[in-house]
Each structure stands twice: as C-alpha cells, then as structure tokens.
Amino acid sequence: KNILSVKNLKKIYSNKQAGDNLALNDLNLDVKEGEIFGLLGPNGAGKTTFINILAGTVVKTAGRVSVWGFDLDKNPRQVRASVGIVPQEVNLDPFFSPRKLLELQAGLYGIKEKDRITDTILKLVSLEKQANSYARSLSGGMKRRLLMAKALVHQPPIVILDEPTAGVDVELRQNLWKNVKLLNELGVTIILTTHYLEEAEEMCGRIAILNKGNIVALDSTKNLLDRI
Ligand code: ADP
Ligand code: ADP
Fold first, then answer.
1. Is the ipTM of this structure higher than 0.85?
2. Ligand 1 mean position to 119 CA, how many Å?
3. Is residue 63 predicted with pLDDT exceeding 90?
4. How far is CA 165 from CA 26, 106, 192, 197, in A?
5. Ligand nearest to the CA of 195
6. What is the model's pLDDT at position 183?
7. Measured from the CB, is residue 43 less than 6 Å from ligand 2?
8. I need a surface site. Which of 14, 23, 188, 222 has the fewest CB within 10 A?
9. Residue 198 to residues 194, 207, 214: CA-CA distances in angstroms?
C-alpha cells in the first residue's frame, strides 16, 4: 500500500538575475507504507527541494503530491500533519532544553498530553538524562537525536531525514542508523536522502537515484546494487 505518491513533480526556481533553475524536472515515485526509502544523489540533485515541498516551505511549480490520499494542494494541513522532517542543519536555540523544545513543538500542534508525549519521545531517543540541560551543552549526536525527537512529537506516520549523517563520524553514524531502524520497527515509514551509497545500502529497502532533477534509477536496493 502506498503512503506517499508523487506524480510529475516539477520545481523551477525563478530568479531575475540568475535566470531559471530547474531543480526537479518530472519526478514520479511512490513510497510504500512501512518501508525505508532512499533518495540518493549528488549535491544539487534536488533532494532538499523535494523535502521542502513536502514540508510546505517550497511551493512546487507543477505536479501532484499526496499522502494517504490527501492532496497537497487541497489538504496541505493533513499532509503536513502526516510528515515529520528531520533537517540537515542543526539549528537549535542554545538556551532551550530538550524538554522545553519538545513541549513548545507539542504546543504548536495542539497536543494535549504534552508531558507524557515529551517523556516518551525523550526516552525513545535516549535523552531523558539531558531533558533539562541547555541545548548548547549537548554533544553533536545528542543534538541530532533532539532534532529527530522534535520531528516525532506529533507522531507522524512518515519521517523524512535530510542527509542524516552528513559530516558525522563513524560511531555517530552507526548510532543514528540504529535510531532510524528502531523508528521504522515501530511502524514509521522512513524516507531519507543521502549522497552516500553505503548509507542507502545499509538502511534502505528501495532506492531512487536522483540526478539533476531526474530519477535515473528506482529499484530494490539489491537489484540496484547488482546492476552497478
Ligand atoms: P540537493 O539537496 O540534492 O543538494 P537542492 O534541492 O538543494 O539539491 O538543489 C537542486 C537545485 O536547485 C540546485 O541546482 C540548486 O542550486 C537549486 N536551488 C536550490 N534552492 C534554490 C533557491 N532557493 N533558489 C534557486 N535555486 C535553488
Ligand atoms: P543542500 O546541500 O541541503 O541542498 P545547499 O547548501 O545547496 O543545501 O543550499 C543551502 C540554501 O541555499 C538553501 O536554502 C537553498 O534553498 C539555497 N540555495 C541553493 N542553491 C541556490 C541557488 N542557486 N540560488 C539561490 N539559493 C540557493
């Protein structure tokens, strides 16, 4: 069963000085409920643009996106409520604690049982000991886990991670992979972007390879690697 469906998605950034920039040409893909789907591609391929369209921060030029049958144009709120985004960049208020940050996020989504949800999610990402510490005192790995926690507060069925391990060391990478797999085992559908083949191979059941706004291959990880 498909949870996300993308048809003929196109994005052109218009810029008076620099001219038009075709970021997504004609993207077609379906993501199945419960899978870990990888979007693999070099810098500039269009991965972040795709995520930002789902997040609602970039407006598509053409095409259709739907989540569980909710159309992004007609039901943007339902689409956004179904998706949790873990951004690439760690951009946290240094003086907020994990607990404070998650409670604010819960407030944003109108969640009633703020304390219970916050406790559960802090436990899930192993930050219960740091619940009340300032974000600036957390290690790089803890900050990444906190970003993941933030994306989970409204309990979205799909979590999208933008280059989850870009620029992190081997140990932390393994740790993040473990956390993502755990989340998937809890029933969350995962989409991750990466430019590491090795990461896609380790994590994903299916992979789409994106290049210059076009999907150049889409298959199970096994089939894809057999062909390379
Ligand atoms: P990726 O995440 O795969 O590195 P992006 O989605 O960031 O790719 O970028 C795809 C293309 O769109 C690139 O050519 C990039 O320069 C361009 N692009 C991204 N954001 C903007 C923007 N705000 N304005 C103009 N062009 C952009
Ligand atoms: P990523 O590696 O995640 O794709 P980038 O470093 O390409 O991120 O982009 C960082 C920021 O710059 C983003 O907000 C993106 O929208 C913007 N950007 C990227 N390419 C362009 C471009 N050609 N013109 C204007 N803004 C751009």
1. no
2. 37
3. yes
4. 27, 26, 10, 12
5. 1
6. 93
7. yes
8. 14
9. 9, 12, 21
Q: How far apart are CA 211 and CA 104, in angstroms?
A: 37
pTM given for the model? 0.90
With a 6 A CB cut-off, is 20 part of the ligand 2 pocket?
no
* Per-residue model confidence as pLDDT tens digits over 129-148: 999 999 999 998 899 999 99
Does residue 30 register a pLDDT over 90? yes
CA-nearest residue, atom 23 of ligand 2:
21
**Per-residue pLDDT tens for 15-27?**
888 889 999 999 9
Q: What are phi and psi of 23, to 5 degrees?
A: -95, -40
Distance 22 CA to ligand 1 centre (A): 8
- What does the block give as tokens for 63? 């095409």
Cα-to-centroid distance, 46 and ligand 1 (Å): 6
CA of 112 to the centre of ligand 1 (A): 38
The pLDDT value recorded for residue 141 is: 87
Q: How many Cα atoms are found within 13 Å in the side-chain-facing hemisphere of 120?
A: 11
Q: In what order do the strands lie in the sheet with 36-40?
A: 83-86, 158-162, 189-194, 36-40, 206-211, 214-220
